[in-house]
Structure formats: C-alpha cells, structure tokens
Amino acid sequence: MEQQEIIQLLNAIGEQDDTVAFTGLYKYYFSGLVSFAHSIVKDRPFAEQAVENVFVRLWQNRKTLLTIKNISHYLYVSVKHESLNFVSRQKSIHYEEFGDDFMVTYSNAETLTIGNENLMKISFAINSLPPRCKLIFRLVKEERLKYSEVAQLLEISIKTVEAQLTIALEKISGVLQITLPEYHIYYKNKKSIKKNPTFKGFRKALCLL
Q1: Does residue 107 lie within any of the structural domains?
Q2: In 3-state terms, what secondary structure has residue 105?
Q3: Higher model confidence: residue 182 or residue 167?
Q4: Which of 86, 121, 152 lies at the terminal end of a domain, its last residue?
Q5: pLDDT in tens, 91-101
Q6: Cα–Cα dist 122/208, whole Å
Q7: For the chain, how many helices (H) and strands (E)?
C-alpha cells in the first residue's frame, strides 16, 4: 500500500469514523504486527490478541489519529509494549521466528512493469534473508521507519540497523544478479537508464530510490 493511500485511510477514520477504512488499515498491518508480537511472546493466540488490543484502542482514540506522525512506528511500538506486558519478567527480545505471514510482497501499480514472475523472484530474494535482516529491511523499506525508530523499537544501535540493512541489500542484489538478467543490466547501468520504466519498477520494488 502506498503512503498516500495510508494517509487517505487515516483521514477517513479520524474525520469520518469510516469503519471500512479502519478495516482496510487493520488488514494491511495485521499479519506483520502479529508476527512481530509472536517473536516476542512465542504465543500465536496472544500475539493476535495483542494486535487486536492495539487496534481497539486505536479506534477508541480515532479522533486523535491525525496527530500521529508515523502510523507504522506507532503501531509497532504499541504492539511491542502490549507484548512485553504479557511477559512476566523483562528480558532480551530475540527477533528470530517469523512465519510466512511476515513475507514481504510487492504488487503496486509501479512495480507491475517488471512482471509477476520477476516480482516473485524479488520477493523470494527478500524472504530468503536472515530473520533480523528481513525484519529491518521491512521496517525501513516497507513500513518507512527511520533508522533511529527501528533502533529504538528493536533495542539496537543505529549502526547495527545500518549494517543489517547493508547486508540485506547486498544479499538481495547478489541473488537478483544471478536470477534476473534484467537486474544485472540495471545494476551495471543504473545511472544511465533511470527513465526506463522497467528499471524504475526494479528501483521501486526494492525501495532503492
């Protein structure tokens, strides 16, 4: 979902009490938030309940929704706190177990220029990343969180976020250069072909703009 679409949903929820928009927002974030919560509590039913609780409060306080600067960051932090409340004693958080529902996928109009088969290969490359790399990649590139926000959320340093993202991009690039001849051409000539719609799709799909 594009950022502008998310903003439109938030406006509809906050200004018009739009339940359809709220359902759309809920469905968009649900699977990722549940996997994130599950990585903390190791209990799938509670992970789902934690996300439900956060969205219940979000609806109850919908009139203040437009004051939230970054809804993705807000939701992940809220789910983190909700999950930690479930844990009897404070302990280190290990983001190691993510199911298929945490897979990164791309299907917006701008990426359709590179074809469904290529999109599947891109998604496969991303989802083949180590768990922490994949999580950081998603939070930064898909959820659009700042490095500092990711560092705070995962209780790691900004340098660690930067290092993990670099590793993620290098691994993805390496896989795509082997599996996608088109990407190999893009990688070697990306400065000279920026106007080509196919390669614009690659940059958009990988959030490398």
Answers
A1: no
A2: coil
A3: 167
A4: 86
A5: 444 444 444 44
A6: 13
A7: 10, 0
pLDDT confidence of 90, banded at 50, 70, 90?
very low
198/183 Cα distance (integer angstroms): 10
The answer to whether 102 and 149 are in contact (CB under 8 A) is: no
| Average pLDDT for the chain | 77
C-alpha to C-alpha distance for 76 and 73, rounded to whole angstroms: 5
- Which tokens belong to 21? 């928009």
- Domain with 63, as residue range(s), is 3-86
Residue 102, pLDDT score: 46
* Structure tokens that stand for 173 in this block: 């690039």
Q: What is the pLDDT of residue 174?
A: 80
150: Cα within 13 Å, side-chain hemisphere: 25
Is residue 35 within 8 A of residue 75, CB to CB? The reply is: no
- Smallest Cα–Cα separation from 187: which of 141, 125, 131, 129? 125
Are 34 and 76 within one domain? yes
